[in-house]
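Extended Data, panel c. Modelled sequence:
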Amino acid sequence: MGKVAIVILNYNGGQLLRDCVESFLGLTYPDYQIIVVDNASTDNSADGLEALGGKVAVIRSKDNLGYTGGNNLGMEYALAQGCDYVLLVNNDTLVVKPEFLSSMVEFAKTREEAGIVGPKVFFRREGVIQNTICATPFFHRALLNWPLQKLQLQKTKRSGEIMKEVDVLNGVCILLKGEMLREIGLLDPLIFMYREDTDIAIRARNAGWKSFYLPVESIVHLQKSEGYEYNSMVNFLLKRNAVYVLYKHGFVFSALGQGVSTLLLSIVRAVKATVRSQGKPYWNFVKVLCKAHWTVITGRNHNEAFGPPLQSWKNLLKK
């Protein structure tokens, strides 16, 4: 059916990483290798994984290259080994259906145009479906969705029971065809993390490949609940990378719209926080986001103001 490399990126994953790897070792698919890429962890969480058997390889990076750079190390290794498919999966996941990979590979094999395939994913516990069907963050969509969300009139499009072609699949668990990767390249290392799934989906589509959601039960995603505050690095990367990806692919007006609107909303947040005497971190967020957007639209996104990976989040806030 084809050799599959299961690339699991790790950064201080603790026991979650070992649990994840052990669960993937229970897959029924006959021809796979697990490649753990350790992104300069400090908790020794990747130590001893090779002892789990010959199906597990560990690649260690001296620096934290983010989701994109770290996964690229694993994919480069996989493609050099002649793998036909790469399964990218988060390290905070557990397999609940050991046969899911067989179903995904069979689908990808029978659909020549399928470059990216994503399964049904459960959120934090089995039975609760995580929505993994995403959309390109065009400004007009954000403009329409914002009032609908405020009025609670928007019905979130959930991953369900129907196989369908989609714009973008959440990168928590996606199967990538090796032939496609060799043609269009790997993840954009400048993105660092978040929106990289949008970027690769656009590049795939431009090259004639398609993305499909396959309603096959697969994993539980044990996503943490902290670290998603408004003035967090996560939110910064989501906003910056939306502008970066849109601008990169020629959607200039949409990128400008996203950039201006997210800055205005961030300023409103900062003003509200100032009233509560909590404004400083919010104004810092406005400052670094403004500089990052400016580097993108002026074509200077290879400097430190762009933020990770060119400068750490901690140092960015000090500027």
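The first strand starts at residue 4 and ends at 10. This feature is highlighted in the accompanying rendering.
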